[in-house]
Predict the structure.
Amino acid sequence: MSADPDKSRLLKHVRMITEELLKSTKSRKISIKLRTLLRYAYVSYIRRTTNLNTIRGLVPRIKPPPRFTNQYFYRDIEDMLRRNFKVSIETRRQFRYVTIYKT
């Protein structure tokens, strides 16, 4: 795990946002880009909210800094998701997609 406290806090927000997404959906699975999930979590971290409507409105205006948008941090996110949720991760059209299953 990373030593940077911001990274660990952001990983907690990724987990909270994933839980919110699972809570708010009616379907048994969600497929989302890993990059989108990171951007949702970053907006949630900056604005201190887990309201998905607010987060979706702010995502186009708030971009995560480069220290969070690299393959190493994405790998940390994937590891955290595998440990805490039932997920499958695949590459589609040059993007990493996470399919999260409701349990």
Q: What stands out?
A: The mean pLDDT is 93.
